[in-house]
Design brief:
The complex is a heterodimer of chains A (288) and B (403). In chain A, a hairpin with a 2-residue loop joins strand 1 and strand 2. By secondary structure, chain A is mainly alpha-helical. Chain A contains eleven helices and two strands, in the order H-H-H-H-E-E-H-H-H-H-H-H-H. Chain A is 73% helix and 3% strand. Chain A has a two-stranded antiparallel sheet. Helix content of chain B is 46%, strand content 18%. Chain B contains 15 helices and 16 strands. In chain B, strands 6, 7, 8, 9, 10, 14, 15 and 16 form an eight-stranded mixed sheet that branches. A five-stranded parallel sheet of chain B has the order 2-1-3-4-5, sandwiched between helices. A three-stranded antiparallel sheet of chain B has the order 11-12-13. In chain B, helix 4 links the parallel strand 3 (101-104) and strand 4. The longest helix of chain B is centred in the first third of the chain and has 26 residues, at 2-27. Mean pLDDT of chain B is 90; it is low at 21-27. The chains are: A mainly alpha (288), B alpha/beta (403).
Chain lengths: 288, 403
């Protein structure tokens, strides 16, 4: 096996990991704070991709869609949280699962009604269309840009949580919601904000994914499974866990394809099973 | 007491009206066809296209007074890409709607499930989309007729087309399920048979609905082949072309895509990603024959768009109804006899039903995709034909034993 081939597959793994991170970071934040396993998160990613698509068709500008889609999806997320999820916080996981599962179906059907069922594609933005030579292999700049964007995003979210007052409150709320409420913070607003922020991250992932992967109905359901594996492997509610889990799953898939393509798909599930046996809380998950 | 009397009266009256209605209906009772297509989910566009073809055929038949003086009527059901649902819908169509004929399934799995149920009902089912050769092979039965080509014929067609091109080193990439593996196995066998100096330097099978093809694309390019046999379809095919473009695959390797001739795939993939590839199709509306041009015009008038592969379901209905017309009855055994002899001059050319396995022989089409001034989407420059006799599978090799 040549080193350059290995390197290329490694990069592929990181690219997919970054897309996974954009989806799973929101998923894990929402779980950490609200205690909700949001099945509809994949749908928000898909709607983000579709809004990005419409924006690009309208403005012919990819960068605008990177701003428009997260904002609109954040608004949608805030709306969903206030109208539906809020009422289930006292009712436990089963109600929330049923609700978000139902929401996923509704959002998927709405997407089909609005955008139709055909697959769509948007072009890679012109300045990122080139390929660069990596040890004799052409590698698309856009993919490298996703790696950079994913890295910056991870850094940004980490700084937000660790270095700002808001982040401190959010972390406190993950630790104990009641405490934060009794300290006089606006807990409903905080919840809505975090849910909207998670939705925005998913939408960002959707927009980044559309020039790479076709935008199609069902793309949300396709990524949500992997995102759940990531969150379970990394540790439910842990943001560094989501990053680590994404990187692991990305590499497992990518290198699996290189060496044992027939079984590549199984590896991520095997990894999840091992983690669940050895460390049920996930690699970076906190003990209950 | 009073209400019970009234109830009894109502029942008698209802029965009376039912009988009366049935009697009146009898004189002009339509020939009923139950069509089980995929009408939801990610492949809905294929189902909708299939429905368009059926609707056009039925409209034309009824405009000429129907068949045997009876109107033709179609009841649609959605198989939802689930064989169990397909079989449920078949039961419903048979027992509640009492249909006379069935158009069966979209996916190979559903098609096969429906085909194997047909002997129970002793009614005829036509297949216009499902392509697994088992339907007219290992699991063939006398009630099932496939009017479209099957995946074995199409893989052979790919080899027949590729052998005249100056390529020796082939790579194969297909989705990891029954269809993907069989079509690659057949292509590999056939290309070696037709062109002994050809070799397959590698093969890889990503899962259906792969999200990122990049690792597979790199694998293809690392093997350094001259041509790539690519029987992908649907969203997978579109994604693959788009991602391949980013890695320069299409420039380095000649792509030979089994379904690359359908606008509903290469359209969304875009000019850049599809230009220069060889694309195949069970039907191509660009086929320049008087029959086809006239048919495409009728289609365009009705739907204000070009057909993708809607000709296949159109052909299916037309062949079935020609068999009925020849038999002079809708009685199953009589129609089976006439159906086995049907040679139908379809828009795509002659389609000949075989008696041995109920598979229809027909041409498959290829072309080089590019910019065609007439259309605002990528399309083949010229429609090339791999003729039926070169791609047909000999009766004794199908594995079909018709009782």
């Amino acid at each position: 096996m040549e080193f350059s081939n290995l390197l290329v597959q490694f990069l592929h793994g990181i690219v997919y990991a970054m897309l996974l991170f954009m989806v799973s970071s929101g998923l894990t934040l929402v779980f950490g704070m609200l205690g909700v396993l949001n099945f509809a998160h994949g749908s928000l990613y898909m709607i983000g991709a579709y809004i990005g698509l419409s924006t690009v068709l309208l403005t012919q500008n990819f960068w605008v869609s990177l701003i428009v889609a997260p904002i609109l999806v954040a608004l949608l997320g805030g709306f969903l949280e206030t109208t539906f999820l809020k009422k289930t916080y006292t009712r436990g996981h089963v109600h929330q699962l049923m609700l978000t599962y139902g929401l996923a179906y509704i959002l998927d059907e709405l997407t089909k009604i609005i955008w139709g069922t055909e697959s769509h594609s948007i072009d890679v933005p012109p300045i990122l269309q080139a390929s660069i030579n990596i040890l004799g292999n052409a590698y698309p700049v856009y993919r490298l840009a996703i790696i950079v964007a994913g890295g910056l995003l991870a850094l940004g979210v980490w700084l937000l949580l660790k270095k700002t007052r808001l982040g401190m409150i959010i972390r406190a709320a993950v630790f104990s919601t009641d405490l934060v409420k009794f300290l006089g913070f606006n807990q409903p607003l905080l919840f809505r904000g975090v849910f909207a922020f998670g939705a925005a991250l998913a939408a960002l992932g959707g927009v980044f994914a559309s020039p790479l992967i076709t935008t199609y109905p069902g793309m949300g359901a396709d990524i949500i499974i992997d995102a759940f594996i990531v969150v379970i492997v990394g540790g439910l509610g842990s943001l560094p866990g989501a990053l680590l889990g994404s990187l692991l799953i990305g590499q497992v898939m990518s290198l699996g394809i290189l060496f044992l393509p027939r079984f590549a798909l199984v590896f991520s599930y095997v990894l999840m099973a091992i983690i669940l046996i050895v460390r049920p809380t996930g690699i970076l998950g906190e003990k209950e | 007491m009073k209400s019970r009397k009234f109830g009894a009266g109502a029942i008698v009256l209802t029965i009376f009206f039912c009988l009366w209605g049935a009697k009146i209906g009898l004189s002009a009772e339509p020939i009923k066809i139950g069509a089980i297509l995929v009408l939801s989910g990610p492949f809905i566009e294929v189902g909708v296209e299939e429905k368009r073809g059926i609707d056009l055929a039925v409209e034309e038949l009824n405009a000429k007074g129907g068949i045997l003086g009876r109107k033709v009527e179609v009841i649609y059901e959605d198989e939802q890409l689930k064989p169990a649902v397909g079989v449920d819908k078949l039961t419903k169509l048979m027992q509640m709607d009492k249909v006379d004929f069935i158009v069966g399934g979209y996916s190979s799995a559903t098609g096969l499930a429906i085909a194997r149920e047909m002997p129970k009902y002793k009614k005829i089912c036509i297949m216009t989309v499902p392509a697994t050769e088992e339907i007219t092979g290992k699991y063939c039965n006398r009630y099932v007729f496939r009017t479209s080509s099957n995946s074995a014929m199409e893989a052979i067609s790919g080899a027949v087309f590729a052998k005249d091109k100056p390529y020796k080193k082939f790579f194969m990439l297909a989705a990891d399920y029954n269809f993907g593996h069989t079509t690659c196995d057949i292509f590999k066998k056939k290309i070696k048979e037709l062109k002994p100096e050809a070799e397959v330097v590698g093969e890889v099978y990503p899962p259906l609905m792969a999200k990122d093809f990049a690792p597979y694309i790199s694998k293809v390019m690392q093997a350094n082949p001259e041509a790539l046999w690519l029987p992908l379809w649907g969203a997978d095919f579109i994604t693959f072309l788009k991602q391949g473009l980013q890695f320069g695959l299409q420039k380095k390797v000649q792509v030979i895509a089994q379904f690359g001739g359908y606008p509903f795939y290469i359209g969304p993939a875009g000019y850049e990603a599809s230009e220069g590839i060889y694309g195949g199709g069970r039907y191509m509306f660009g086929l320049n024959t008087p029959e086809n041009n006239a048919w495409v015009e009728r289609w365009y008038k009705k739907y204000n768009r070009y057909p993708d592969n809607g000709c296949l379901s159109y052909n299916g209905i037309m062949m079935l109804m020609e068999a009925v017309k020849k038999a002079g009855t809708i009685e199953t055994e009589a129609v089976i006899k006439t159906f086995e002899t049907i040679q139908y001059r379809s828009p795509k050319g002659l389609v000949t039903m075989r008696k041995c396995d109920h598979q229809a022989d027909q041409d498959y089409f290829w072309g080089k995709v590019g910019r065609v001034a007439k259309y605002n989407f990528p399309y083949v420059n010229e429609v090339l034909i791999t003729p039926a006799q070169l791609i047909s599978v000999p009766c004794e090799e199908t594995g079909c034993k018709m009782e």
